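pinging the channel bc i need a second pair of eyes. not urgent but kinda urgent?? the chain im working w is below, pasted from the shared doc
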Amino acid sequence: MRSRATGAPAVATVAVIVAVIVGALFAPRTVVAQGVSLSAATIADVNAAFDAGTLTAERLVELYLARIEAYDQSGPALNTVLWLNDSALERARELDRERARSGPRSRLHGIPVVLKDNVDTSDMPTTAGSLLLAGSVPPDDAFLVRRLRDAGAIVLAKVNMSEFASGATMSSVGGWIRNPHDVDRTPSGSSGGTGAAIAAWFAQLGIGTDTGGSVRGPSTSNGIAGLKPTLGLVSRDGIVPLALSFDTGGPMARSVYDVAAMLDVIAGVDPDDPATTGAADNIPGDYVSALDGDGLRGARIGVARQFMGGDPEVDWVIEAGLHAMREAGATLVDVEVPRWLVDAKGDWYTTIRWREFRDQIPDYLATLQPGYPRTLADLVERSRRVTASTPDGGRPNPVRWTLFEEEEASGSLTDHEYVAMKEHGLPLARALLDGLMESEGLSAIVYPTSASRPSPVGGGGPSWDTPSATNLANLTGFPDLIVPAGFTTDGLPVGISFFGTAFSEPTLLQLGYAFEQLTRARRDPVSTPALEGEMIGR
C-alpha cells in the first residue's frame, strides 16, 4: 500500500466556456475508427477489448495509474486518492492468466474500482478520512468488497471523503477534494473523492456511501451516474456507520451500464446484515438486462417542480431533459410532495442521524486494534488535541469535529423523539411517497438532484432558497438514480434524479439508461484531458 503525497493541493487555473444547448445534449459518443476512448468505454467495451485480445487487465490498471499520477497530486491536484494498492498490477496479471486459462469470473473480471475510505479493506487502511483512525487496517473486508474481489474486480485505491461521511468536503487525513470540471468548485460530499476520481477516469468504477445524499451529490456535481439503492439491497457490513437507518453503499460510474453491472455484483443477502433479508425476493437475475434504449416509451413519470427554481441554468437543463423524455414517448405529470414533509424532513433526518451515530459508532470502533478511540466521546476528546497541521500532512477539521460534539449531546435511542420518529415518522414518509406514486401510476419521479450548480471549494457560494429532495430517499429507504443531464454556461455539471419505490432499481435503470443514450450529456472534465495511448481497441 502506497500513501499518496501529502500537502495542500495546488489550485489549477481552469478557463471553461461551455454553453448548454439542445444540440449538445444529442452529441455522439466519443468513438473513432480504432476503438473507444478510455473515458467513454463501458464495462461492455472493456470486455469486448479483453475478448479481442487488444487489452489486458494489466494494461487497464497501468492506464488508470498513469492518470492518477498525472492529475491527482500533480496538474490540477484533485486530491482524491489516499492510498494506492501496491498489489493492483500483480493482481491484474493473475486475473489475466486466469482469464486465459478458464475465462472471466464475471463482467467485472479485471476491472479496476476505487473505494471510499469508509469501506473496510483488510489489506489497506480504512480511516473514514480521519486522523483519529490514522493507520487503522480492519480485520477483514466489507461484504461488498468481498463480492467485488470474488467477481474479479481489482481494488485500485482508497479515496478521500468528507470525514466520517459528514461535514465539509475534506478530511483531516487528506484535506480538500477538488472538482475536475472546475478545481475551484466542490465535488460535493461525502463521497466527493469517489465522484471526482470516476469523473477524471482514475478507475472504471467507484463505491460511495449514502446516508443523506452522499452518493447523489457527488454524482451530479462531477457529471457521472450514481445509485443510492433501496435500503437493504446492499449490505452495510464493513461500512463505517453514520446512521444504520439510512446508510447504504452505492455504485458510481461514468455510465448507467456500469452502475447496473456493478449492482449485479454487490447486491445480495448478507447474514451479518439483517436489513438485507428483505432483498432475497427482490433481486433480479441481472440488472443489466433491464437496460433498454427505448425504455422511456410508455413510461409515466412524475415531475417534482417544487425542487426547481434555485438556479435558472439548472432549470433550463432539466427542462431540456424533460422535453427529451416527452419526445422519447414518456408521459410527464406534475406532482408535489406535501409541503409539511418538505419543511420537516431535515429535522426528522437529524433526529435519527445524530443519535444513531452516537450509539452505533462504538460497535465499529470495537473491531479496531488497541489504541484507537472506542466511543464518540473519545473522538471528541482526541480531536481537541489536533489544533495544527501534523508532520504527516494531516490537519484539523473544525467543521466535522464540532459536529462530533453536537452528535455526542444529541441523546439516545430511548429518547421519545427518536422512538416516535423511528416508529412513526419514517413509516409515514414511506407510505406517503409510495401512495403518491401508486395513485398517479408513476414509474418514477424526477427532479434536479441539486437545484443549483456546485459551490466554491470551502463554501461561500450563492445561497438558493430552494428545498432539496435528496434525503427523501433516505427517510423512505427508496432508491434514487442520478444521470448526467447537461452543463451550465460555466461548465458545471447538472444531474437529474430518477426516484422510485422500494426495489424498483430495474425500472429506474431502464429509464435512466434510455435518458442517457438519448441525451449523451456526459462530458470529460477540462482539467484532466486524455493522455496518449488511452484508446480502447475493439
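so The chain has 15 helices and 17 strands. and The longest helix spans residues 339-365. — does that match what u expected or am i reading it wrong
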